[in-house]
Write a structure and sequence with these properties.
The structure holds two protein chains of two kinds. By secondary structure, chain A is mainly beta. Chain A contains no helices and twelve strands. In chain A, the strands form three sheets. In chain A, strands 2, 5, 6, 10, 11 and 12 form a six-stranded mixed sheet that branches. In chain A, strands 3-9-8-7 form a four-stranded antiparallel sheet, with no helix packed on it. Chain B is globular and about 40 Å long. The chains are: A mainly beta, B mainly beta.
């Protein structure tokens, strides 16, 4: 069984300050981990993906995430927030055993203040 | 390249009526998935097609939901009869086939279903 916990339902930052969205996962097998973003009235867009290569994964729009097996974490970071980053972010796990269903976290809504 | 498309974008129906949602995956993607987000809850997996075959139906809530993928191209998800608790956003995703899994799923914009 696999699960994902997003530790914050809402995060508010000022424009130009760092962003940290926290995610912990549980998986019986070597997981694939993803971060997706959903802007208002838009579909889910893939930000980045970890599949057991480099533990530091770089994504689009300046986001990156680090896979830490010892901490079972996959936190999403960005050095400097932009107004356009305001959206809902989902941490997602897939266990790569052949069952391909994704398991989603509950989402973190990021607010960026001017 | 066109992304995953879903139709309609919004649907408002009354309890007891029937609604059919459609998903067109990215061309060439054998895998097609349906997910649902009920208000205030996580996005949950419903089912997975490989071409026209149902690979995993473990997330389908009950037998009022029927999914089809005739010819292995587009898919439909029918809810009959609809109940109030079926309200939510229904997402479709597709991905190319990778033997080891871990394939990236590309999502459509979703269909917002409201049952009154």
């Amino acid at each position: 069984a696999q699960s994902v916990t997003q530790l914050d339902s809402h995060v508010s930052v000022s424009e130009g300050t760092p962003v940290l969205l926290r995610c912990n996962y549980s998986s019986s097998y070597s997981p694939s981990l993803f971060w997706y973003v959903q802007h208002p009235n838009k579909g889910l867009q893939l930000l980045l993906k970890y599949t057991s290569a480099a533990t530091l994964v770089k994504g689009i729009n300046g986001f990156e995430a680090e896979f830490k097996k010892s901490e079972t974490s996959f936190h999403l970071t960005k050095p400097s927030a932009h107004m356009s980053d305001a959206a809902e972010y989902f941490c997602v796990v897939s266990d790569r055993t052949g069952r391909r269903a994704l398991t989603f976290g509950s989402g973190t809504r990021l607010q960026v203040q001017p | 390249e066109a992304g995953v498309t879903q139709f309609p974008s919004h649907s408002v129906i009354e309890k007891g009526q029937t609604v059919t949602l459609r998903c067109d995956p990215i061309s060439g993607h054998d895998n097609l998935y349906w997910y649902r987000r009920v208000m205030g809850k996580e996005i949950k997996f419903l089912l997975h097609f490989v071409k026209e075959s149902k690979q995993d139906e473990s997330g389908m809530p009950n037998n009022r939901f029927l999914a089809e993928r005739t010819g292995g191209t587009y898919s439909t998800l029918k809810v009959q009869p609809a109940e109030l608790e079926d309200s939510g956003v229904y997402f479709c995703a597709s991905s190319p086939y990778l033997p080891g899994g871990g394939d990236t799923q590309y999502f459509g914009p979703g269909t917002r279903l409201t049952v009154l």
